[in-house]
Design goal:
The complex is a heterodimer of chains A (about 110) and B (about 110). Chain A is an all-beta fold and about 110 residues long. Chain A has no helices and eleven strands. In chain B, a hairpin with a 6-residue loop joins strand 4 and strand 5. The mean pLDDT of chain B is about 90. The chains are: A mainly beta (about 110), B mainly beta (about 110).
Chain lengths: ~110, ~110
């Protein structure tokens, strides 16, 4: 049973517009959430994270929102750029755990 | 050189072969991980080493054998694999007790024929 779900395998967005990537989780013990970005033929790279004590974290064009009651988080990219085209993975972990649990990823295509 | 380096980048092996994947990190991290990424599946954690001791083994078949000789190096020894083991194998490292961010290598694309 998947504990971290990214229900949209792909998303296309026009350059300059907002990209919203969604992620749902089922494990109430998760207290830290991360987004990774992956280009073809490269490993995932860390993008942004959020602790469960917050509901928003912002870093430049990237903002992650956390809704604990809904067990839902989202990544907003504003404005979207062609270089943002990649696969985005949502990941979660709990206190004292070494393990990051990943979603299947969402492939974002930003159209010039 | 910095970051996490994996070799080889691509590997094709027969089901009776023995091969090893290598991972090296130059970040001073004290935990290292092997993940498997199969098509249309999430990244699956295989093994975790913390301070050179294996702390997690997620029900991985014995044909995969990890080795962590020191905090900078991690190996995955492969023996009598099956075609369904074909996948991208990713190594990662992190510093326990601080951030839970992993730094990943570029992966080894393994094809079992």
């Amino acid at each position: 049973d998947q504990q971290v779900k990214q229900n949209s395998p792909s998303l296309s967005v026009q350059e300059g517009r907002i990209s919203i990537l969604n992620c749902d989780y089922t494990n109430s013990m998760f207290d830290y959430f991360l987004w990774y970005k992956k280009y073809p033929a490269e490993g995932p790279t860390f993008l942004i994270s959020i602790s469960s004590i917050k509901d928003k974290n912002e870093d430049g064009r990237f903002t992650v929102f956390l809704n604990k009651s809904a067990k839902h988080l989202s990544l907003h990219i504003v404005p979207s750029q062609p270089g943002d085209s990649a696969v985005y993975f949502c990941a979660a972990t709990g206190a004292g755990s070494y393990q990051l649990t990943f979603g299947k990823g969402t492939k974002l295509s930003v159209i010039p | 050189e910095t970051g996490v380096t994996q070799t080889p980048r691509h590997l094709v092996m027969g089901m009776t072969n023995k091969k090893s994947l290598k991972c090296e990190q130059h970040l001073g991290h004290n935990a290292m991980y092997w993940y498997k990424q199969s098509a249309k599946k999430p990244l699956e954690l295989m093994f975790v080493y913390s301070l050179e001791e294996r702390v997690e083994n997620n029900s991985v078949p014995s044909r995969f054998s990890p080795e962590c000789p020191n905090s900078s190096h991690l190996f995955l020894h492969l023996h009598t694999l099956q075609p369904e083991d074909s996948a991208l194998y990713l190594c990662a490292s992190s510093q326990t007790g601080q951030t839970r961010r992993y730094t990943f290598g570029s992966g080894t694309r393994l094809t079992v024929v």
